Prior knowledge:
This protein is α+β, with helices and mostly antiparallel strands. Among the domains are: 18-96, no CATH class; 109-225, no CATH class. 19% of the residues lie in helices and 23% in strands. The protein has helices at residues 46-55, 155-164, 192-198, 201-214, 250-255, 279-289; strands at residues 18-22, 28-31, 38-42, 60-64, 69-75, 81-88, 94-96, 105-106, 125-129, 136-139, 146-148, 169-173, 178-184, 218-225. It has an eight-stranded antiparallel β-sheet with strand order 6-5-4-1-2-3-7-8, covered by helices on one side. Strands 11-10-9-12-13-14 form a six-stranded antiparallel β-sheet, with helices on both faces. A hairpin with a 4-residue loop joins β12 and β13 (178-184). The chain is globular, with a radius of gyration of 24 Å. The two termini are 29 Å apart.
Amino acid sequence: MTTEHKPGDEWDSHYRGYRLRANPDEEVWWQAYQGTDRLFLDPVPDSLVETLLELKHLGGRIRVTEDNDVITRIEADDDSYEVVWVGEVSLTGEFVPPEDPEFSIPVAPDDVEAGDLWPSVYDGAKYSFAPGVDRVWWANPGTSKRHPVQASLPAGIKNSLNQYKPRGGSFRVTPWNDVLTLVDLDKLPSGARVEFDNLPRVVKNLISLRKDRGGVQKIPIYVGEIDQTPLTVGSPPSLTDPVSSADLGLDGWTDSLGTTKTTEPDDHSVETANNDSSDEDNAQADSRSGSDSGFDENELPDDDPIDW
């Protein structure tokens, strides 16, 4: 948690987090994708809502980071918006559908294991990763620039993300540090159908809404838990950053070239050994085997739209 801030102080980190809303009636809810369906938080963090209403008399949207900091956007004097710190909260309790309270779901399920279908709301701070999970970043929605996450993810989290999403993608981190991701149906663990049948009715309908309103035919699963928060990010790469030959791997590349071979002027070609293959042959082999060797990480799957 960021204890050095006071309510209304400018937020000096990236804007992300679990999405909630509050109103002057001191109600707090999570709102379903591009709709009006609401799940009300019970119990309500009263002191936090009171602080929010002092900053925004009509209430509004808040984010809860993976370190339990609550932040919001407020209108500045020049009609722009700035992000400010509201307070800290430990989310607990249930999300309650107002029309059918008996179908309430836990905010933070505690009886799940890695690979289980996620039996609650899919939300949290969003981060993306490249194939192999060697690089992880936060994508600024305003600039689309990638801000690299400074610390490495735990090995177990990386292995699971790579297993379920070998081509890269995104994941969410909840305020209680659970890591979640959306996976294709063919990547689900065995027994997933039985698990789906046992999911709460509200969660099944949320999965259906993601498909109908966002075109996301994926199922949320629990990946694991991180123990070091917050996830801090650095500045995005720039075309003016210094680059050395070692950074590009040119030193090893030139060393691997070996000696040259003289060719006849009329025949600017060199025969290859029988066990060598041309680039075209390699490309064809990759195509047949489904290899990702030519994969462009700028074309990561849009597996989790920000605004549905």
